[in-house]
Each structure stands twice: as C-alpha cells, then as structure tokens.
Amino acid sequence: FLLNKFILTKLYTDGKEEIHQINQKMEVERFGTAALPFYVVLSPDDKKISTFPGMDTNKNNFIEFLEEALKKYENENY
Question: Which of 11, 25, 56, 67 could serve as a FRET partner for 35 with CA atoms 20 to 30 Å apart?
Fold first, then answer.
C-alpha cells in the first residue's frame, strides 16, 4: 500500500485554540498557504519534497502526487 511508505502526521490549523493559530502561522510562513487540506512530503532532514494544496476529489491526482514525491525522494532530486 502506497501510504505505508510514508510517515503520516497531522498539523491542526483550524480552530480557535492558540496552538491551532500558531500552527497555521507556521504553515503560512513555511509553505505560503493556509489551505485546508494541505499535504506536504518532507525528507528526513526536513526539506520539502512536494506539496499538494487544497481539495481535489480525483483520487488519482493524489496518488500521482505521492508516487512522484516517492520517486523524487528515492532519486534524491529534491
């Protein structure tokens, strides 16, 4: 299964609690967006490999995003 090749984490950016506001600020500063949902693949050394902003109901687009990110990581082209 493709997702088993990734370590999944969640960053909660919506809500009124202070931590959500801090997380949202970090997302905007680091990635230039506050899109919900927003997906990012990072390398083990915290470099951005690929992003997938916003909602897309076509599952094949998301699968392609994951496959391309994995390929970039394996080829170290990030």
Answer: 67
Q: Give residue-wise pLDDT tens across range 7-60.
A: 999 999 998 899 999 999 999 999 999 999 999 999 999 999 999 987 899 999
Question: Which residue's entry shows tokens 């370590």?
Answer: 7
How far from 50 is each of 16, 22, 42, 46, 69, CA to CA, in Å? 29, 23, 7, 12, 6
Largest pairwise CA distance in the chain: 41
